[in-house]
Predict the 3D structure of the following.
Amino acid sequence: MLSCPVWQQSHTQALTMCGRARLIANGAAEEDLAESAQACILCGSCEPLCPRGMDTQRATLSLRQQLVKRGLLQVIGTHHRSRQTGQVRSEALFLPGQTLRDHKPVLEQCERLLGNRVLCAADDGTDICHDLECGTEIDDKRLEDFLAPLRDAREIIASDGMMVNFLSTLLGPKVRVRGLGQALLESAQVRRGIKRTDLYIIETRTFNGRRGELVMQYESLRQKTGCFMNLDLHRVATPTGAMSAQYRMNHQALVSVEAQIKWLLEGRSAERIVVEHLEDGAAFRKHTSLPVVHLAEVAEP
Amino acid sequence: MQTRFKPQPIAIQAPGPGVIPPCNVASDSLIGIPRQQTNPCRWQGEGWQSFVTDLVNRGIAVDERRSARTLYQSDAGGIAHGLPHGVVVARSTEVVAGILAAAQQHRVPVTVRGGGLTTEGETVSFGGLQLDMRGMSRVLEIDASKLTVRCEAGIYWHSLAESLRRQGLDYLSAPLNMTSSVGGTLGVGGIDINSPRLGCSADQALALTIVTPTGEILRCSENENPWWFNRVLLGYGQFGIITEATLRIRPFTPITMHYFYYQDLKQAMEDLVMVSEEDAADYMGILTMLDRAVNLLVAFDSEEREKEFFRKWRPRLRGFGEARFALTLGMHYLLRPWKFREALYLLNRKRTLLPALKPSHHLRDNRIVDRTVVFSQAVWKFWGGRQMVIPDLATSRGKFIEAVLRGNEVCRKYFPHYTLYCVGIKLIGPKERYELSCIPPDAEDIAYGCEFEPMLEGKTYSRDHIQAFKNEIYDIGVQMGTSYYRFGGMMKGYIRRVFGDELVDKHLAMKREVDPAMILNRDVIF
């Protein structure tokens, strides 16, 4: 609860994961959980701190699904199906997502840094992630079509944290699924480009879902470069909220992205924002006058 | 001839605002037995509806949904259970004032809650209104030049630390628990491992904004309304609700930590007393794993202090470093193979606990950053659980060792594994502040405390077992004339026994004067 943005902005326990867990344990009716399930932005910040070790993101997703099925939760919005221009099969696949595809120079820079062995997938499954996040049912055929080429891969890099967590669960340990930030940081060119006065915004869904595995990578980057990061004292990544379906679909949201950004900048004399995900970058551009760059763009030659 | 009872269905309707729903005990469950309240003094819901209407007229909405109320049904102790009739999340001092004024008028009890980390049901409502202070969690002003912070009282210490750290600052001392609130802590004391130097958390307060039980808003400090200031600090929520606090703070420093190991609890305690009274370290305390494995931890904010400690005080400590202790203990168990389970327990504890106290992502140049996070997470992981069972004793220096040794015997009788956490508390406030508090009346300069924490290890112990254990620890306090960190709620029966009638009656008279309807945190102390 301590790192939960819903808690920090509302200070209403019932709206947090901790509150939901207690309400369920106390026998609350499903309708009593709807407001809380809807408020969550699925940033995963409760997961590393959960004293019971719950998979909190999965718990909230399945609660949403249940509530939508029973008509107790309004679906946030529908997402158009991802374009599919034939399947790409490779040992290493990159799922950049629609936002990155819309920023071609950044996408090309990402591809350059990831190397030739990583091929860009034709289908990002953005619609699947959206459905998953909103609790709507995913069509089995659509899911199978999406997963088929991924099953042949040994490594998948996805820029969407929800996709990273989803694929890790579905594909099992045989396929190594990573976030884009994680993969780009393997490049010394990228690491060298991060400056002491940067505020580095980690993509929270991937990081918080795998904090145990990733925390040292980011902590040592922070120590080496001296940059600011969106990590709190627990070393949990604080979200901007811009990745949530509520924000993307312009739906009424309890977590104000502007307030999150204000908090992220408070007391930090950052001169540039470096983001792992372009949606975080867009939110910073909207609410600050600081220059914003994608991680791939900081790479030094 | 006996008439056969025919159960009548009860029409249960959703109650309107302020309406107490019908009793949900089935009508046929007490055939022929009139329902009787065993405590006729307990509030029975009188005036609730007019109270809620009054609050609504003042623009304060009361959440009477069952789902909202059940969130507050117990506290960290998990033994006391009760339900409020309604809940308000406080959002401003004025709202709190309005609530208390109305509660006083309608004689409705108000139970205040922050993090809910009480263990004896002190923050659990048995009817009435639950006032959740966590809605007031803002940091209002940080003055880096004067080293003070003004914040709302519902804020967690951890959240306060997040704000302070952005400016390279830190609070002085706070409980090693992430969800303690500032207001709740100031109301009971608050102990940290730097309390032997800096005193309890309550002594960090420079000024407070409080709401009296009759709904008056007051600013108080040592110079302004000092009576209220010293009654509300360590006052167990009896004399007012803290809504804002101005606290002393300090520059943030990472710390270096050292552990010394003892096979003898008494020796470790004597050394703790020595280190505390000689001001030899910046942080100090005892954590036990077994009677044979006692850990004295000391830590330092600066290299100079650390060097001075090793030059001047380390030679006087009887504890071993880790390697020598492991060797000594290894020999001990080698000669006593039938105690292999004990050895395995210790090995496992060492394997899991020690790395948790030094996580690499919280280390920089071998110094621990964010010590409160590190310790609090360890406390959660290794001592947390569904129930916090931590009876304690707070004593003067003269009684400390005997009290802890006796408490240790009680622990051994009830549980296979337990931890003692001992720490000193520097007395830096005026004596009158400490009356009827966790500071024992006979303590001078530094008081000492010990928490006796059984490791429940996922086992289920009966409520009777846990209660009997706690009573036996508390009995030591009565016999020796000590005090307790926690003595309210279900343990309030001990208050007169340990503090005596004269002092308790004096405070009761004060309470009656400022809280005529006795609505604020009823049944916690009085």
